[in-house]
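G., the chain you wanted modeled:
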Amino acid sequence: MISEDIISKYKEDGVVILKNVIEDKWIETLRSGVEKNFKNPSKYKCVYETDKNNNELFYDDYCNWNKIDEYKNFIFQSDIGKLAQELMQTNKVNLFHEHVLVKEIGSKKRTPWHQDQSYYCVNGKDNCSFWIPLDDVSKNSSPEF
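Predicted structure as tokens:
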């Protein structure tokens, strides 16, 4: 599914762009899951920004895959695990968690630069994260690596 050039780049840089590797049906499935998620968030939900009417503009939640079928189905029935397996060149992939971040139109708060490894309880380089935008996102609003 992934070329040797992409795999080499991932090993060298730790990041690659994979375009058009997730079917539209899974994007729709995940959108539905996000709606369910934020109607019934977990104890981990965090709101980073609200507007003057207290509408949430930037928020997140995680560790919901076992209670939201759309997340679980995507994780175990799509090719996302195979993509991670190919990138890491490993025989086995374990799920650490899913993490959903939502930035609504009008959010002005910038996500600060950070590195996840410092707070993950995972050692080594066999760790792979996917940023999967569910809406069109301009380069101006995309993560930087």
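DSSP finds four helices and three strands in the chain.

Shout if anything looks off.
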